[in-house]
Specification:
Keywords: DNA-directed RNA polymerase, Nucleotidyltransferase, Transcription, Transferase. It comes from Promethearchaeum syntrophicum. This is DNA-directed RNA polymerase subunit N. Its EC number is 2.7.7.6. 11% of the residues are buried. The mean pLDDT is 85. The chain is mainly α. It starts with 16 loop residues before the first helix and ends with a helix. 58% of the residues lie in helices and 0% in strands. It has one domain (14-64). It is globular. α1 packs antiparallel against α2. Bound molecules: zinc ion. Residues 6, 8-9, 11, 41, 43-44 line the site of zinc ion. Zinc ion is lined by residues 6, 8-9, 11, 41, 43-44.
């Protein structure tokens, strides 16, 4: 799963990840998602975007249960 904090700057990100997935699922523009979550640094954005595929698999798994 996603690390609790951004590797580069130490910002707490794990508590925002569920909301990020919700907004992505609703097809919100990515810049609006960053604004809503308060993510401003590229290093933190990278933490989210690099985990999308893994979470997609997890969501599929949950639906099957
Ligand atoms: Zn960061």
């Amino acid at each position: 799963m996603i690390p609790v904090r951004c590797f580069s700057c130490g910002k707490l990100i794990a508590d925002k990840y569920e909301r990020y997935i919700e907004l992505m699922g609703d097809n919100h523009p990515i810049e609006e998602i960053w604004k809503e979550l308060g993510i401003t640094r590229f290093c933190c954005k990278r933490m989210f975007t690099s985990h999308v595929e893994i979470v997609d698999d997890l969501l599929k798994f949950n639906r099957l249960q």
